[in-house]
Amino acid sequence: MGADADARPTWRSPVARRWRFLVAAMLAVALCAGYLSATIGHRLDHGSSRWHGADAESRTEGQRTELRFAFSPGGQVTFGASIRNPGPWPATITGVNGRPSDQQVFKIARLAVNHADEATAAVFDPAAAEPFRSVRVAAGAELPVFVTITIPDVEFASGSSLFFDDLAVDYEVLGLPRHQRVPMGFRLSVYSANDYVPSGRR
């Protein structure tokens, strides 16, 4: 009985196997590099709107807008800033100004948000605001954030002020944690018209 010609073993070249392995490895490296580039290069920006109550004065000088509050040591003020996700990926914002308290001049007392999505424009509505928790912001969408800060009880000279113009934001893009100082699009200042010395230093 003759042997079946179709049953002969197939011989594969070691060189061909090495090439296939090399191509697969190169594809994996390219995908990893693309993933890191997409996530590390993803940055948030300030949105198109802001909010303040009657206790603040809005001032514009040139291209700079300032929200000015009167200095009231130990008092609290609330303002609103919107955070925009330019895309192209969704971002999950997990924290705002999550720095150690001893590194902050202004301490955050409360955070609240108005939720928005692709079909809803960013709108500041204090009555509808909810306490902040991790929130997904779609590509191209904005998140209105209400920030309540405590004014520090520090020495002030007449005509001086304390100010800041960004927020420290923690967020995730494609599962990778990111941290960024996001510009607010305006400067918030606390202004004192008079000299002030804390009672413990008089």
Please, how many helices? 1
Shape: elongated
- Whole-number average pLDDT? 82
In terms of quaternary structure, the protein is single chain
Number of strands: 11
Question: What do you see in this structure?
Answer:
A hairpin with a 2-residue loop joins strand 10 (161-173) and strand 11 (176-191). This protein has 202 residues and is mainly beta. It is built from one helix and eleven strands, in the order H-E-E-E-E-E-E-E-E-E-E-E. The mean pLDDT is 82. It has a six-stranded mixed β-sheet with strand order 2-3-11-10-5-8, with no helix packed on it. The chain starts with 13 loop residues before the first helix and ends in an 11-residue tail after the last strand. The chain is 13% helix and 43% strand.
Short recap of the structure:
The protein is mainly β and 202 residues long. It is built from one helix and eleven strands, in the order H-E-E-E-E-E-E-E-E-E-E-E.
List key phrases describing it.
mainly beta; six-stranded mixed β-sheet; five-stranded antiparallel β-sheet; 1 helix; elongated
Write the layout of secondary structure elements.
Elements: H1 14-40, E1 45-52, E2 56-61, E3 64-70, E4 76-84, E5 91-96, E6 107-113, E7 130-131, E8 135-137, E9 142-150, E10 161-173, E11 176-191
Parallel strand pairs: 3-11
Antiparallel strand pairs: 1-4, 2-3, 4-9, 5-8, 5-10, 6-7, 6-9, 10-11
